[in-house]
Design goal:
By secondary structure, this protein is of the alpha+beta class. The protein has three helices and three strands. It starts with a helix and ends in a 25-residue tail after the last helix.
C-alpha cells in the first residue's frame, strides 16, 4: 500500500511538472497574400509567440520586406495579430497575419485580443503669421 501511494505521488508530481514546464511548440500556418500562399512556422512557448519563420512565400520582395521584419516583430511583441498592417503591402500583411492565426489555432493557443495601434509622434506646433 505504501509503495502504491509513493508511486502515485511520483506520477502526479511528474505530470504537474510536465504541464508547468511545457516545451516550446512549433506549428505551421498558411495565409493567402497578394501573389499566393504564405507559409510560416510559428514557435509558441507558454501561450506566447517566441519566433516566426517564413517557410514559403511568393510576395514581391521589395513591397513585402517590412511585412517579414517589422510586422513580424510587432506580432511577437504584442502576442497578437490585432496590429496595424504595412502600408503598401496590405494583402501581404493580411496573408501573414492569417498565417499566424492559423498556426495559433492549430497549436491551441489563444492570442491577445487587444488591438494595438502604432504610436504616433506628436510634434509641437509653432505659431505662425499670415503674411499679407
Amino acid at each position: 500500500m505504501f509503495k502504491t501511494s509513493i508511486l502515485f505521488t511520483a506520477l502526479l508530481s511528474a505530470a504537474a511538472f510536465a504541464s508547468v514546464s511545457a516545451a516550446p511548440v512549433q506549428t505551421e500556418g498558411t495565409g493567402i497574400g497578394k501573389h499566393g500562399e504564405i507559409k510560416l512556422a510559428v514557435t509558441f512557448d507558454n501561450g506566447k509567440i517566441q519566433d516566426i519563420k517564413v517557410l514559403e512565400d511568393h510576395e514581391n520582395k521589395v513591397l513585402a520586406a517590412k511585412v517579414f521584419t517589422d510586422l513580424k516583430d510587432a506580432v511577437i511583441a504584442n502576442n497578437s495579430v490585432k496590429v496595424d498592417g504595412i502600408a503598401g503591402a496590405t494583402f501581404s500583411s493580411k496573408g501573414f497575419l492569417n498565417a499566424v492565426s492559423d498556426a495559433a489555432k492549430k497549436a491551441g493557443v489563444k492570442l491577445s485580443d487587444q488591438a494595438k495601434k502604432a504610436k504616433k509622434l506628436m510634434l509641437p506646433c509653432r505659431p505662425f503669421r499670415i503674411m499679407t
